[in-house]
Amino acid sequence: MFKEATNTKFLLFYIVLVYVFAFMFWWSYLLHSKIEQHFSDAVNYQSLQYELNHGGNFEDYIQTEEYQQLDQDFSRQQTMIIGEGAVFFIVLIIGMVKIYRSFKQEIAVARQQKNFILSITHELKSPLASIKLMNETIRKHKLDKQKQDNLLASSLSEVDRLENLVENILIAAKIENDQYGFNREELDLSIICNQVFESYKSRQDIELKANIESNVLITGDKTCINSILSNLLDNAIKYAPNSTVSILLKRDGNKVELSVCDTGSGIPDEEKQAVFDKFYRLGNEETRQAKGTGLGLYIVRQLVHFHDGKIQVENNQPQGTCFKMVFKL
Ligand code: ATP
Ligand code: MG
To answer: How many angstroms is it from 161 CA to the middle of ligand 2?
Structure first.
């Protein structure tokens, strides 16, 4: 449905485009023929008059001031058609490019929203369904303590997932409405990185390494830095499972470089900018396996910007993804 509507829209756009250009060229041609006809009629008339009154031939007539005047008028009108036509053509091209871009943007936004609705429905419904199922199992069946504990642990991790999702949606909404209450305090980035490293290092699904320079101080918000790191690490776990993930922190002159790199399958070059867009996810929601809403990297970029920092995504060597952030000391 969405693709069909998009194709129809573009088809209509191209039809209008071709029509407007054909129309413009046709009218320019008609106008030019008309003034050319007018010129040759006037020349014929005046040359006849000249021959009758002065007895000279056509060669003599074209030397006269009358002919020169007619010729000048004709050239002026020709220049006017070409000039106005060119201006009209340029304005038309600019207008068409703008319309084309806004179409593309509209389509991208619509696609993202469609993906977002699909993913959010899925993301909200699936943890709720499994929490419900696990609770019902505990209630209906007489399970031993071990099984009950396992079910409760899974149930709690689903609750965590829901909590993270709701938290991300709220943060994104607050950032957009300039309502996020950021703190500006002196932070020891090395301590925060080490704490995050400790909390993730026991995970089975990645091998986590860290190279963290000590006593790296910046001004900022601790919750934000935690959120940046956990979003990047969660992504590495989701999109580069079983890979080696490293957290690197080092001073570089009066700057600080913080990177989270994995050795997964990487992000294609043409998608590297788009992954920071709100709701943007690679591929299509229907075919995508990993859970998510496409808010994580959008939030990360906004939080990095709040710290006057920059973030970019690069290829890791020999393979994988590297999210590199630079902050001022
Ligand atoms: P959310 O973080 O809101 O749960 P998400 O993880 O899909 O959802 P983002 O964190 O914004 O959203 O990531 C956007 C997209 O970038 C992901 O869907 C994924 O396709 C791609 N991506 C992010 N990190 C990596 C990575 N380390 N390796 C490969 N692809 C990645
Ligand atoms: Mg994410």
So the answer is: 12
